[in-house]
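Exercise 3.2. Students should predict the tertiary structure of the chain below and write it as structure tokens, then compare their answer with the key that follows.

Predict this chain's 3D structure.
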Amino acid sequence: MAFLQVQCFSEALKVQTTVNVILPEAAQGIGIQASGKEELPKVLYLLHGYSDDHSIWLRRTSVERYTAAYNLAVVMPAVNHSFYCNEVYGERYWDYVAQELPAVMQRFFRLSDKPEDTFVAGLSMGGYGAMKLALSFPERFGAAASFSGAMDIAERSSVHASAEQSRIFGDISQIPGSDNDLFHLLEKNAKAAKRPRLYVSCGTADFLYHQHQKFVPAAKKAGWDVTSYEEPDVGHEWAFWDREISKFIPWMLG
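Answer key:
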């Protein structure tokens, strides 16, 4: 895989930002099998968690090795603590990730823009961001995944109320039923003509496991195609996320 660190100006954020990108190559070197395909690469938008940035997936997992056998590009943006939202008193990270970033990647690189070739996944805060993208724009993605995701953002914000939460969401009592609420989005777009397959996983010892337990039946009740996985005695940890991304990539590609 080719690794590129893209420094570019974001119109949405009004600042320079960094995106890590890995792209498939015809030859991969010793011990790595290349896809050998020449059509436009499919693309996975891979989102980081609360304490991390655009570099973390490459530093803590073998995602580059897992994607090498497939004709797949991986795009990893940085969004700070934004929860992939347009912050009420801050920056427009939702506009950046949902609209500007895909357009910029298409302009910079030769990537497929077909919905069936476009995927999104993330962990923790990034799991929330991935589901928010997939549920908000179901026609744009073939599959989406949340690993140990913050699925009930209204509950999280009320339990962990802080100046930061108010900066991002404003009045947190207004989150339920809004487009920042995944449970609302499940119902809002339940009748969409085209919807992605969803993969949702969590460890049973994870502090977000109860949110996973709430989200999966709600998604199934709303008619979404959901595959869920719970790993016993696993917490909020990179060993689990490394295993999960290695499983999700072939799953999303069918």
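Discussion points: The beta strands are 2-10, 15-23, 42-47, 72-77, 118-123, 143-147, 197-203, 226-231. Residues 134 and 144 are 6 Å apart (CA to CA).
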